[in-house]
Amino acid sequence: MPEVRYLKAVNQALYDAMEVDDSVFVIGEDVAAAGGPFKATRGLLETFGPGRVYDAPIAEAVIAGVAVGAAMTGMRPVAEIMFMDFITLAMDQIVNQAAKARSMFGGQASLPLVIRAPHGGGLNAGPQHSQCLEAWFAHVPGLKVVCPANAADAYGLIRSAIDDPDPVIVVENKTLYAAKSELPDDPQAVPIGKATISRPGRDVTVVTYGAMVREALTAADQLTIEGVDIEVLDLRSIQPWDEAMVVSSLARTHRLVVAHEAVEAFGVGAEVVARMADVGFDELDAPIIRVGAPFAPSPFAKSLEAAYRPDASDIVRAVRRTLA
Questions:
Q1: Which of 14, 81, 222, 317 sits at 20 to 30 Å (Cα–Cα) from 58?
Q2: Same fold for the domain at 3-182 and the one at 196-323?
Q3: Do 41 and 14 touch, CB atoms closer than 8 A?
């Protein structure tokens, strides 16, 4: 299969969805003529026109509010938040309006809204442009949250998110935008809620998602030299998440490491660990180890950010701990 950049897969998913459904439109800061801050919407204005690609003011509450209203009237908006950090300004629209609409209207109304939000560090952008906030939204009933790790999943999950009748937060790691991976000539939608095994193994299961999948695969290569064979499980979907596949993997390896770039405390990993300590307890031969960022804001300095962000070496140490 041909390899394409992650960002190209995002762009193609938006293009294909807009081509087959006139109710799909894009709204966000600089998404029209400029093609978005990371160029994910490049070319959409020229193809679909200003009636379907809207430049919004620098007001995330407005972007989310317009998108929620449009979704409630039958449109399928795709709203882009320039950095996930800025989603804080739209929390009422997302958490109190979008997430609650189906419940508030007794199941008679759906809200097919997608919010794309780049997260994570790696650009030395500091504490207000580098946060991973996906756990916030996974905690809110009524929202779905996905975080693709490669081009095929970026395409497939965005297509599924746009087709979904309920609001979906699509989290994209900024450091993946330039990364190349395989994308079929005829890419397909990826079901929300289904994990995948990125690398089979027998000794330890590493559960992760987003940019940390790449780090886990690097760790797996390093540990092979030591005779350790780890299985890398990519959640892809954070809410809902594929608990059954994690249990199945744990039943094969009997050891578990959970890794994410987000702050370790109260994160997605904590939920996975808690559930496996309950439903997977009989399969465990060693303590579960978490890998995540320290409980501190992301630093600006390149050297400090490199130390702050979890990477393959942290996963290697965690695997060694659980094997010991």
A1: 14
A2: yes
A3: yes
